[in-house]
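retry 2 of 3: previous attempt timed out while embedding zinc ion. Reduced batch size to 1 and resubmitted. Inputs unchanged:
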Amino acid sequence: MQVARNKVVTIQYELSESGKGKLESGTLDYLHGFQNLMPVLEQFLADKKEGFSGKIEVAPQEAFGEYDADMVMKIPKSEIEGSENVKIGMQIELESAEGVFPAMVTAIHDHSIIVDGNHPYAGKTLLFDVKVLAIRDATAEELAHGHAHGAHGHHH
Ligand code: ZN
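retry 2 succeeded.
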């Protein structure tokens, strides 16, 4: 069996920042062809067979975007509910015209806090070391949901 649209693929991956250290690793079930993974990674895995392993380097613009200094914002404490409990390193949710997005608290001042709304991997060139462990047909339910279920898939 080959990786193709409507297949559930189990991959083992190790993600590093290119030329630097390891960021994370794990095992993942994903439904191929439903944008569960970043497009460049899906393209890389297409047509591969069980047991395939390989590495791919992904530029920031194909992964989590360039680091955007405008996403670092100063917010008055008066605008943040429970601001007395906010700590550095904490994720908080900010509301914008485009909806709610997570941001990391990077500094706390007397009357304001500084948050960074960039994805933690923004601006990083990523290196994926991927192995295809298993490939199977997706169930009708998985196709209807647009994601894989099971041990390493989506939990409801
Ligand atoms: Zn589901």
